[in-house]
Structures are given as structure tokens and as C-alpha cells.
Amino acid sequence: MKIFGLTGWSGSGKTSLMVRLIPALTGRGLRVSTVKHAHKGFDIDHPGKDSHNHRVAGATEVVVSSPRRWALMHELRDGEPELTLEQLIGKVAPVDLLLIEGFKRDRHEKIEVWRADVDKPLIAPDDPTIVAVASDGPVPGCPVPVLDLNDEEAVAALIVKRCGLG
């Protein structure tokens, strides 16, 4: 399984690019899965649902299954640490390409999504794992190739090439 990431500051457009990039990659016949880091707490469950009630009652893991999908929710309890990216990858079923959103400090190859109007510094000059930058305009002082943020086909082509999936 090949692993490649999108990173950048909050508000830069990582998720928007990811949502356009997945069909560009699956359209090439690749099986793609994703891992996304959320800095704040999140919940895919809702109060009043049976699965939520199971978690609130103290279950460590709850599996919800239907004819269309299944989900496993694991509650971190009693100060359990957040899983590392490596641990999360180990929980994903093998596919051709696992796209990672966020996890900017991890050492996999990635594209930085950067917009001048977000008013944050470019990460690429200090991070050798960033192999390109996707931006909506010029990127002053960029040490790696710059791709058009709105051209998901060009971004997909770079990922396919870097991962040897062509």
C-alpha cells in the first residue's frame, strides 16, 4: 500500500483538494482510502442513537453495521494517548493508495496546500518530506515544484508518479 499526504495550515484548502483528488485517482482505477487528522474533538455519533448510548455507558468500542457500511468507534478512555499515524495505518484495510490529510510532522511524502491569503508561512522550506506545493497563486521562495491548486488532475499525476502507481 502506497502512502502519500496533503498537509498545510487550517483554511488552506486541504479537504477541498482531497475531495476533488479522490475521484481523479479512483478514475484511474486505483483503490483509495484516507486518514484525516482532526485537531479538535469530533464525533460521528449522535446523542439519542443506540450506538451513542453504548459509548456513554462505557463501551470502549462500538461497531455499527448496516447493509451499506460499517463503522468502528473506539473511545479513548482514562488518559489513553491519541494513536500515531503508524498505528492508524495499521488499522486500514490494504488499498492501492492511502491518502493522509494533516499529520504535517510525520515523515511520509506530501504536498503542501498553501494560499497567501491564509497568512501563514510556507512549510516546504523546512520540511524535506514536502515534494510539491499546490497553490492558487505564486509561491515566493518555494524550493519545490508548484502545482495549480485547482488542477486536481495534475496533482493526481504527481502522486501517481511519486508512488509508482502509473
From TrEMBL:
The UniProt entry, under Pfam families, shows: MobB (PF03205)
- Per UniProt, residues of the Molybdopterin-guanine dinucleotide biosynthesis protein B (MobB) domain are 3-136
The UniProt GO MF terms for this protein read: GTP binding
Question: Could you tell me the Gene Ontology terms of the biological process aspect for this record?
Answer: Mo-molybdopterin cofactor biosynthetic process
Name the source's superkingdom: Bacteria
Q: Which CDD domains match?
A: MobB
- UniProt xrefs under SUPFAM superfamilies: P-loop containing nucleoside triphosphate hydrolases (SSF52540)
The molecule here is called Molybdopterin-guanine dinucleotide biosynthesis protein B, mobB
Tell me the classification of the organism that encodes this protein.
Answer: Bacteria, Pseudomonadati, Pseudomonadota, Alphaproteobacteria, Rhodospirillales
